[in-house]
Amino acid sequence: MAGARVADILAALAAAGPSASWPDHLVETCRRSTGVTGVGLALVDRTGVSGIVAATPGVGRELEDLQFSLGEGPCTEASLSGRPVLCSDLADDGGARWPAFAREAERAGVSAAFTFPLQVGAVALGVLDLYRSETGPLHGTHLSEAVAHADAAVAVLLHLQGRDDETGGTGLADLADRRAVVHQAAGMVSVQLGVEVTDALRALRAHAWAHDRSIGDVAGDVVARRLRFHDSGSGTAGDTEVRDPGPGPGGEPA
Fold first, then answer.
1. CA neighbor of 178 nearest in space, from 19, 54, 27, 46
2. Nearest to 26, CA basis, from 65, 60, 50, 76
């Protein structure tokens, strides 16, 4: 029965339009069929969320951006454990596990979060995040719909990853374009601070959090050389902004 429901979801996606639009359709149909407030679909790697593929407008997008920026939350836990993370009360249970995420989720009006890891065997592909304004567990039809959409999401991610660029279509890397600029910025910051890339990514997230900005915007400033990180000399990494640094040798930005 579950396999038949997954097939129905995939058939509806195929009928909705080109495969580049499938993630957007999937998160919206998941939101409607589970009765939640927002849904997000993200890629993961060993550090957590590496790129947002699709999210429903409003809460879905806001909470996906939040987990991506903070590097904490149910999606990171699910990606590392390979098991679903079903938090029916973020204020009660989530506060101890992900304090910053739980606090900001509450401000956004989200009281419960349910994350399903998307993987093939031991290989992690992504996560499907469901956010709800009311506390309480997912159960009955809503839970089975969430699981079916997670299975369908695995098929969608595999399809997009396997697309041939020569077809002229939009592949998964294009849909998660935010991932590329953040990783490029992390590489630059790792050189500036003399640290590993994973530590540079943490520094980017910390700066974004401290300045109430998205990590994508901070990464864009680093890549454009409007923002440069430096070692404070106090044993911890510090940063400073360099606005309009002016042309360097050969007319390139300094």
1. 54
2. 60
Which pTM does this prediction carry?
0.72
CA distance 30 to 107: 23
Domain at 215, CATH number: 1.10.10
Domain hosting residue 72, numbered range: 2-167
The answer to whether residue 72 sits within a structural domain is yes
Which residues are within 8 A (CB) of 159 and not within 5 positions of it... i.e. 6 or more apart?
19, 22
- Tens digits of per-residue pLDDT, 189-201? 888 888 877 678 7
In the block, residue with structure tokens 């400033």: 221
Residues 6+ apart with CB under 8 A from 164: none
Distance CA 232, CA 47 (A): 25
